[in-house]
Design goal:
This protein is α+β, with helices and mostly antiparallel strands. It is built from five helices and two strands. The protein is rod-shaped.
Amino acid sequence: MSSPEALQEARKQWMKDETGPFSDIFLPQMIGCLKSKALMESQEFQALAPEAKAAIQSDTSPDLELVSVSHVLSNQAASSFC
């Protein structure tokens, strides 16, 4: 925000209907856990011990984790933040 007045106006708009300049800031997090067929076919993976391969191939062990972090604030939290 370029000025205290602009910050205050953005805060008022956010508190009213969760729109305006703050709507670009207070976005939810995105998380993706993916498996890679290419990894499982790589020479490095093939050279691993069977126990290590089994651990990596388990359904609860992602090969890739993608995370987009942003501030997530409710109106109540935003009132004390701004």
